[in-house]
Amino acid sequence: MLTAPILINIPGIPIYWTMTIITMIIVLSLSFIIGKSLKIVPGAVQSFAELIIIMTEYFLKEIIGDEGAIYLPLIASFAVFILFSNLIGSIPGFTSPTETIDTTAALALIVFVLSHFVGLKKHKVKYLKKFLGPLIVLAPIMIIIEVMSALSRPFSHALRLFANIFAEGFMVTVLLFLLPWVIPAIMMYMQIFTDFMQAFVFYLLAIIYIALSLESEEMGEGENAL
């Protein structure tokens, strides 16, 4: 497969591990710097960080409600890590950790486990009723359908991010090999826009999946009433 040369490649260690570590170092370093130099009148970097926090707070409250505030650190961390993981692939000599299904699958599994954990924590055994369907006579069929539906979420969650980032990175690489620099440069601007959008879609879906688990009892009651 056609690939661009990688600047940092440690023998015996998968490239996406190296890129993940580099991304984490960048994110943690920026977080430390911003935290140590907060200003009343924020600069560009602090303003961007505050924008992520404000947006995350808004979506958590609108989708989950007041109890969504507890998930702010995790969801905001998802947004920042995925965004920088996507963007690092735009730098020559680097590749996005999210171009690898292993990375996106790990992120999706965290969301999957967390969403069902909070559902069980809130609704206890009643949470399992959603897998049985509205009528007990349909339970043997509905449990198969509901389990397959639940398992499809992390699969589609991981695949969506991986496929989009992989496709855009491959397209820019091909253009760099085949066309003058001007056209690939334009495509790289589009790639950056896509990087932002894919990070937003992933973390918004994470919020929605958590909300669905927290609301499962009320939804089940509504279905039974119908």
TrEMBL record:
GO CC, any one term:
plasma membrane
The record's section on PROSITE patterns has:
ATPASE_A
Indicate the principal place this protein occupies in or around the cell: membrane
The residues the entry assigns to the signal sequence are none
| CDD domains (alphabetical) | ATP-synt_Fo_a_6 (cd00310)
Recorded GO molecular functions are: proton-transporting ATP synthase activity, rotational mechanism
Q: Where are the bilayer-spanning segments? A: 12-34, 69-88, 100-119, 131-152, 158-180, 192-212
**Would you identify the family this protein belongs to, as annotated?**
Belongs to the ATPase A chain family.
Q: What is this protein called?
A: ATP synthase subunit a
